[in-house]
């Protein structure tokens, strides 16, 4: 009997040890990454299959495109990684589909913070990182989060440092401009009467580029508050900036500047209404390229402080350092 009891104890201890070892081994295969919703997500230490369901441009510079298992139609991303045109699809009938995502067997999926699919995918045991990029703080956090999640922290640190270098350059160019000499400027949103307050990245960028944003306090906390054209007429800003046709808007550059109702705006009369460059990128939307948008704004408003030739040198260097692309000005489209 004593021998049987002893044997049972030995077996119990052995099984307990094996269970503990297995648990430790399993936990060693995953690590915790805090996403932009504040969720603690268990992500595999070795991520080999990534689905950038949203925000691929925030990841493409990390040199992990060979791990992407879904396709993209983004022009810049295809210049960097042409093979992404032929990867798997995460859509069915034109909409993002959970079953299509699961069939690609991803190690981790990146989704917009508001996506209804996050909870469903987590229920299937698929790690999902929620992404939100509406401020510079969120932008830098996102790059760092991907560096941690994908095991490329060194590269993420390089991109963050380079972005900060360009940000500092812009600051230094206009830091000594007295407020009395700064032009007024606004950034038009998705709708003709919508603008960017200083709580939106574009609104802050105006100020960082040396402008006074009369829309700074209007609709703080909203994404694109509609202030109306009557208020914009009252501000009569020296400059008006807007996105290019890579974004959806209910107006175009041509429709805005040729509208008789806008003819008395100083910016229209003086030819100071500008669409954001470039043909392959969104320089004035959340992303590292907003560093270029900021410098471009400085060139527009203070050409004596940043010449066209100097801006071109910075832009060409940016696409080389960020993405390894040796492009011409014509190819970038600015």
Summarize the structure in words.
There is one protein chain. By secondary structure, the chain is of the alpha/beta class. It contains 13 helices and ten strands. Strands 3-6-7 form a three-stranded parallel sheet, covered by helices on one side. It has a three-stranded parallel sheet with strand order 8-9-10. Helix 5 runs antiparallel to helix 6, helix 7 (201-208) crosses helix 11 and helix 11 (290-301) runs antiparallel to helix 12. The model is unreliable at 7-27 (pLDDT under 50).
Give the helices and strands, then pairings.
Layout: H1 2-28, E1 30-34, E2 40-44, E3 50-52, H2 75-80, E4 91-92, E5 95-96, H3 98-103, E6 108-112, H4 117-123, E7 128-131, H5 136-150, H6 153-174, E8 185-187, H7 201-208, H8 229-235, E9 239-242, H9 253-258, H10 266-269, E10 273-275, H11 290-301, H12 308-323, H13 329-332
Parallel strand pairs: 3-6, 6-7, 8-9, 9-10
Antiparallel strand pairs: 1-2, 4-5
Helix pairs in contact: 5-6, 6-11, 7-11, 11-12
Any low-confidence stretches, pLDDT <50, length ≥5?
7-27
Strand line-up in the sheet with most strands = 3-6-7
Based on CA atoms alone, the radius of gyration comes out at 25 Å
**Shape, per Cα inertia axes:** globular
Mean pLDDT: 91
Fraction of residues in β-strands: 5-15%
Briefly note the structural class of the backbone: alpha/beta
Features:
334 residues, 13 helices, alpha/beta
Condensed summary:
This protein has 334 residues and is an alpha/beta fold. Helices cover 42% and strands 11% of the residues. The strands form four sheets. The chain has a three-stranded parallel sheet, covered by helices on one side. The protein has a three-stranded parallel sheet with strand order 8-9-10. A two-stranded antiparallel sheet has the order 1-2.
């Amino acid at each position: 009997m004593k021998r049987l009891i002893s044997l049972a104890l030995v077996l119990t201890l052995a099984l307990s040890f094996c269970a503990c070892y297995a648990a430790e081994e399993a936990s060693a295969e995953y690590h915790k990454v805090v996403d932009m919703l504040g969720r603690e997500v268990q992500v595999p230490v070795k991520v080999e299959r990534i689905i950038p369901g949203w925000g691929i441009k925030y990841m493409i510079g990390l040199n992990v495109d060979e791990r992407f298992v879904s396709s993209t139609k983004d022009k810049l991303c295809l210049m960097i990684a042409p093979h992404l045109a032929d990867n798997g699809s995460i859509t069915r009938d034109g909409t993002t589909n959970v079953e299509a995502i699961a069939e690609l067997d991803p190690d981790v999926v990146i989704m917009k913070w508001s996506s209804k699919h996050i909870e469903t995918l987590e229920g299937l045991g698929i790690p999902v990182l929620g992404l939100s990029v509406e401020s510079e703080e969120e932008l830098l956090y996102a790059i760092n989060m991907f560096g941690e999640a994908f095991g490329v922290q060194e590269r993420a640190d390089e991109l963050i440092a380079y972005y900060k270098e360009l940000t500092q350059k812009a600051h230094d160019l206009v830091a000594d401009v007295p407020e009395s000499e700064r032009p007024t400027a606004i950034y038009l949103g998705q709708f003709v009467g919508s603008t960017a307050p200083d709580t939106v990245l574009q609104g802050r960028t105006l100020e960082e580029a040396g402008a006074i944003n009369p829309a700074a306090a209007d609709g703080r906390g909203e994404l694109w508050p509609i202030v109306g054209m009557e208020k914009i007429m009252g501000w009569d800003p020296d400059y008006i900036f807007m996105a290019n046709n890579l974004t959806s808007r209910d107006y175009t550059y041509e429709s805005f500047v040729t509208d008789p109702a806008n003819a008395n705006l100083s910016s229209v009369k003086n030819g100071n209404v500008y669409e954001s460059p470039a043909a392959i990128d969104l320089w004035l939307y959340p992303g590292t390229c907003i560093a270029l948008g900021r410098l471009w704004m400085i060139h527009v408003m203070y050409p004596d402080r940043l010449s066209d030739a100097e801006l071109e040198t910075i832009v060409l260097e940016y696409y080389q350092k960020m993405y390894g692309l040796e492009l011409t000005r014509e190819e970038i489209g600015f």
